[in-house]
Request: fold
Amino acid sequence: MNRFKDTGHLLRFAFLFVIAFVAFLIIRHFVVPKSFGEYGHYRGAAIGEIAALPIHFAGHQTCETCHADILATKAPGKHANVNCEACHGPLAKHADDPSITPPKLDTAVLCIRCHAASAAKPKGFPQVDADQHAGGVPCETCHQPHSPAIQTGGTK
Amino acid sequence: MLPAAAIAWKYVLAGTPEESPNYTMSDHWWSMLIDIPKCIGCGNCVRACALENDVPEGHFRTWVERYHVTDYDMVNPQVISPDGGKEGFPSVPEDAGKYFFVPKLCNHCADSPCTQVCPVGATFISPDGVVLIDQTYCLGCAYCVQACPYGCRYIHPEKKVADKCTLCYHRITKGLTTACCESCPTGARQLCDLKDPNDPIHAFLKTHHVQVLKPQMATGAKVFYNELDGSVR
Reply:
């Protein structure tokens, strides 16, 4: 047993090591977020936090619960599958509180955004040179934006 | 779709969207379809994304590129994307060559290079297949910005942490589609759920010539491009 008589320095080192390990476990317990590792090497609660971010575009399903008449107007026309907020902009606040009125739209900007003639656009897509086509007359004089085909009089 | 969105909407209006029920992560595997022949380059998606997600000026979670390929010169396409295509593109007269628009966004890769390089576990693939960032955990080291082969990440100029497309995770978990898909007037962008057997994406993938960006990098990209031209980088 003689050879173990000078082991004091080793025991002191082992004791320090144990203390450091326990301290590590205690600090880790407080520092690592509770949900870390729930699904993988990341904080699981982050998924819920991202999912809880505020919504700005209400979605056409929400619009249609009140504006069924517009839905009916759109249905037969070329704009049937253009969602409300594609032109009207984000209106979740309006859906939340209908007293908040949506901003007035400017067809001179909106129609041209999609329908300005350009050789870069798909060939089948209806395009016009605004100046030649209407000469400054507002688009909605002839085309109702919700169902843009000209209904009576005039030619296509 | 309608009942799910309608049920969730109650909670959204009440200011407690996180309590909206009927969403199980393991039931979904999100992806997106980009139908190139339908894209008109109006920039609606870019504007909608910026409004929905408070994207800082000059940075983009989604953007649109316009390619111009002259004759047979496939390796040198002229690509423009003025302000990410936010305000559309300049008109071109009838001209030689081929033009088309390519909307880009995070590809939500199944084997994403960006999540593999994060040293702290701040970015990850959620159980429903969306690449997300825990911005409270991110150090802003920008390894992921360099790792993304598609250039879809940036360092947020104010928060100083990585930022990117979340596939509108706050919307798709409530039965809504993404802001870009919602505002796309031609249906060129479609949110798809690969785990939903009734999703039209399955029939579409079988019957169309669909490609992902940089397939040679084996990232498992889940943004599918219909009729993607070979000149697209």
User: Anything to note?
Assistant: The CA atoms of residues 160 and 170 of chain B lie 22 Å apart. Chain B touches chain A through 61 residues (CB under 8 Å).
